[in-house]
Amino acid sequence: xxxxxxxxxxxxxVRRVVERIREVAPPYEVRFCHVCGTHEWTITHxxxxxxxxxxxxxxxxxxxxxxxxxxxxxxxxxxxxxxGVTILxxxxxxxxxxxxxxxxxxxxxxxxxxxxxxxxxxVKIARKEPSREFVFFAVGFETTAPSTxxxxxxxxxxxxxxxxxxxxxxxxxxxxxxIGDLHIDGFIAPGHVSTIIGMxxxxxFPRAYRMPTVIAGFEPLDMLFAVLMLLRQxxxxxxxxxxxxxxxxxxxxNEKAHxxxxxxxxxxxxxxxxxxxxxxxxxTLKDELSRYDAKIRYNVKVxxxxxxxxxxLCHLVMIGKIKPPECPLFMxxxxxxxxxxxxMVSTEGTCSIxxxxxxxx
Length: 361
Fold this sequence. Notes:
By secondary structure, the protein is an alpha/beta fold. The protein has 18 helices and 11 strands. It folds into 3 domains: 3-65 and 170-243, Rossmann fold, CATH 3.40.50.11750; 67-169 and 281-298, Rossmann fold, CATH 3.40.50.11740; 324-354, no CATH class.
C-alpha cells in the first residue's frame, strides 16, 4: 500500500486532522462553500459535518451540472423528441423537469430518448442508424466539455448535431459572492473541474475578493484537509489560493483540453436554472461549426420556460442559502421517486444526496 493510499485509510489520521480543525477554528461561525456534487456526496455519506465544530458549516453551491441546466434547454430537447428527433443524453438528465414535462415524459409520449454513457456512444449510435436524426444533449461543466469538443472536431456523422448546455464553474462562484445576504468565508473548489482548468481561474477569489480558496479532492480526508487549510488562512488573516489536490491538479491544468475547448467553443453569457443569466458562463459552438448546432439546425423556439415549480426552493438550495429540509416540499411532495425539482433528480443534486442518506437537518 502506497503512502497516498494509507493516507485515506488511517483512522488515527482522521482523528488528528479533526483535532487540529477544532484547535484552529475561530470562536465565531464560519461557512465554507463547495461547488461540487461529488464533494457533497462525500461530506454527507461520511458524516463529515458531524465531525466539525458546530460553528464550522459546509454549504453546497451550484456544483451539480444537471441541476443547473435551465428548463428552456430541457423544453427544447423535449420539443425535438416529440417532433421525431432522437435525443441522446446522460441518465441523470432524463428525469429532470422542464417547464411542463421531462424527457422521461416525452419518451412515454412516444419520443425517442436514449441514455448514453458518453458522447462517443452517441456518435456510434448515429453512425449505425444513418436514416434517423440524432441530437446529443451535451451537459456538464468544464470536465465534460472537452469530450464534446473532440467529437465535434473529428467530424461527426451528418445526422448528429449537438444541443450544447455546458456551463463554467468560476463565474458561478463569483455570482455567489455578489449575493448580499449569503455569507461565505471560503471556497472549496471542485477537483474534477480543476484537473481541466487548473488553478489559475481561481486567482481572482483571494486577490479581488479576499476569499480563502482551496482546491480539494474527493476522499473524506481531502475534504477535512481543505477545511483545515481554510481555517488556517482565516486564523492567519490571509486569503490564498491553495491546492490540496496536488496529485491531480496543476497550475495550468490540462493544456490539451484547453486547446480543444478554444477551437470548438466560444464563451458566452448563459442561463443557469434558478440563478438567471451569468456573464461568460456558458459554451456555444463557434460560428464555423454551426452546422453541428441543433438550435440552428432545427430552429426550435421555446417560450415561457419556468425553472422552478411553485413551492420548490431548489434555487435557494443550489446557492447554499438553505439546506434541503428547509424546503417545504423536501421528502413530502418531492422525493427521489417523485422529484419536483432538479436537485432531487441527479445523483449529484444536494436534495437527492440528503434524501438517500436520510439527513433530516
